[in-house]
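Table S5 (text form). Sequence records supplied for joint modeling of the two-component complex.
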Amino acid sequence: MLVVKEAQFKIYVYPNDYESGPHCHVRFNDDSEISVDIPLIMPRYGADLPWEVREVIERDIDLIFRSYERVNPPRIYKKPKKKRK
Amino acid sequence: MKPWNDVAYQRITSAESLGDNIVVHFENGETSEVANKVLIPFDFSDIKWDDIKYNPFEIIVPAQPEPIHIPWDKIRVLTDKEFAKDLANRSEKQSKLIGLKIKRLREKKGIRSNELAERAGITPQTISRIEQGHTDVGFATLRKILASMGYSLSDLASQEAELDIENTPRSFNLLVKRLSKAGIDSKLLIQKIIPVKLQEALNTQMSNQPTMLLDEAASYVSNVYGWPLKEIWSNQTLIVKTNPSELAYFKKPSNANENQIRAYCHYAYYLAKIVLKTTVQKPTYEFPGSLEEFKIMYLKSNKELELKSLIDFVWSLGIAVLPLNDPGVFHGASWNIDGRHIIILKQNAKSHARWIFDLLHELYHVFVHLQKENTSVVELEELNPFSDSESLEELEANAFANQVIFGDDAERLAEVCVESAEWKLENLKQAVIKISKKEKIQVDFLANYLAFRLAYQGQDWWATAAKMQISEPEPFSIATEIFKKNVQIQKLNPIDHNLLTTAISN
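The corresponding structure-token record, covering 591 residues in total, follows.
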């Protein structure tokens, strides 16, 4: 799902993409990608995060985080009840 | 290097459906096979596995109510244990870091853990678990916690560099980030202050940038802003200190960022000092005492008012003229630095007439208001003959520029044009051309005057006025060519040499 569109890059979040915690995908016009942990804005792998990308994520962090969570709703864990012997 | 940092590990080269599985080929030659049922979110139906498409980043599966997009790392995390383990570690580390940051923010505000829980409407146990990084914290809870301390998510993210600076390896990005917080525009920094070659050298070694190169980059900043390297790399907040004489402006636009103004003024003032250092001291001329005297002096060696002659004339008076072309709130300045004058022109329009107006405006400041040493005028709003400035100096400077261009006839000419156009906007262009010929006034000046006047009345005539401008050769090029003839750049030290040549590059 496209969340932010800038001249040099676009930011996406995906549904059913919660295995490794909240993150977004920054995709550049040159066919490269950096995946970024949110809300702390830490790049996961790929190149270092360019300053202009960081600025945009920081600016739109509410929108990106909310969009991620809308398509990856927080999972609720319940303690399994102990079985009576 | 971990394989997932390589783009070949990430890029998908093909994908196909095989029974209940999807088979994905990656650019590094690896193939992953994953059960298609684990890839599908809830609420999707009518899934057409045989029609899957792909691009280097994702697989797209036709479905209802919309196609399902599956990113490459979803496939990898389900099929590569090492990658999954690495991401799980990162996720755990992020939870801990979020907790640590919340704790630090809470302590910084002197709020007790129980009080924070009460403010945010959650239990103290939850706060404790979050601060210890034992639980993932969702968007709504995180926002509630931060808001109850007066912070936002953006604060939490931007705090990262400050909190971890001492533990984080120095990097060029960190430098840019810190300076950006001090008001130094990142574009100014990378386009004008730090040499491109140095940035390229740093970019080739992204993962482990050599300290020597990073310090060299920081030393450019240190030179302009006066911070020692140690301070630049510390976790102290950097503050641009400006002498009041660098920063006398009449009116600050309401939306202007004070830090950015100070940072840009400091940069421009530093350039001004370099220019005066490298400019041969001209004999001190008496400045013209009146408008008529100015015209006589100018017309002694020039036939008409045109940009090149005017800039040459200003230099001949011992006043340096430095053109700059960065975007932003700063629109020019005049400084008297230790008794010597410099005008900075920063007009984004390529119109000769606009540049001439700005230069005349600044000249008036120099002639009349900057006789005292170490005084200044900084223009934070675009110069406009119909400015509603409350400053008498600004109004006088506008009147001077208009009188040099039109004599006392500006308003009369404007009225004649409007009358000739029969008060119709669509006839105005032809009327301006006709009247400019008849009255022997340059058409671009007259068009600009009318455009400004109409804008003052709420009508936009700029598109037409723009077509009537002289814009070749580019005013910035004219001003830089004259500048280069008048300064001895080669005498400067390498850092100042680089700063000045980059500043005047187009």
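Note: DSSP finds 23 helices and ten strands in chain B.
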